[in-house]
Amino acid sequence: MDIQNATALVTGANRGIGKAIATELVRRGARKVYATARIPESIDIAGVEVLALDITDSGSVAAAARAATDVTLLVNNAGVSTFAPLVAGDLADIRREMDTNYWGTLSMVRAFAPVLAANGGGALLNVLSVMAWLGYEHSNGYGASKAAGWALTNGVRIELAAQGTQVSGLILASTDTDMMASIDVEKNRPEDVAATAIDGVAAGALEIIADDQSAAVKASLSGDPAEFYSGFAQAR
Ligand SMILES: NC(=O)c1ccc[n+]([C@@H]2O[C@H](COP(=O)([O-])OP(=O)(O)OC[C@H]3O[C@@H](n4cnc5c(N)ncnc54)[C@H](OP(=O)(O)O)[C@@H]3O)[C@@H](O)[C@H]2O)c1
């Protein structure tokens, strides 16, 4: 993917990782960057085209696909985390995570697949999470939505291969944004995650691992889960 020739659209570009990705795309000289958000007035990035977009609203998604017909790189970044546990958490929170992180992302993929095809195939980047690969108290509804997003990413990669669309997933752990403001752990900088993400897309990587923590969790998947989760319990 040639970033300088790309016309990108980033969801949730008003803050956090989405803002960092849109800013980095402008910095690298992308031809055009559509920065989108539920409240477009909240976007503060020089050099972008602003679009209103709520990924859980099918009318809004369809309107964005009609407006941005020149997109060659779609970045599905928008997401929510409610920290609801699966067993005792509020079902409305768990559904909101699935509605946004899974159904919203799928809605964007379906709306923009024909746009990408018409523009030569292009690329699609889904911002996932290391939580797709592990259980963790208070993040399990979120983790399930990101695991669904991971399966979606792998699935649409196959479905869109014939039209030449490169489909990548970004896996990351803790990054310093509003989403993680209440969690006191070591965090990556959104700017670094954005740079790694765009390097990965440019290099044609299908899975982009943004940090050592995510790489360690991925490596653990080939082992006995009992080993991984006992280490986890000791660390608490
Ligand atoms: N921060 C981390 O440690 C971390 C780790 C792993 C993965 N991630 C993933 O990274 C992505 C970005 O998260 P972040 O950390 O930057 O979180 P954030 O600071 O909370 O930002 C979330 C963004 O998603 C947008 N959004 C939420 N629902 C939306 C909807 N229905 N339609 C359009 N936009 C919507 C928000 O817009 P509003 O301003 O309108 O709410 C905001 O721009 C998410 O997919 C998240 O799951 C983050």
UniProtKB/TrEMBL annotation:
Kindly state which keywords UniProt assigns to this record, in alphabetical order: Oxidoreductase
Return one GO MF term: oxidoreductase activity
Similarity comment: family membership: Belongs to the short-chain dehydrogenases/reductases (SDR) family.
What name goes with this protein?
SDR family NAD(P)-dependent oxidoreductase
Question: What's the source species for this entry?
Answer: Microbacterium enclense
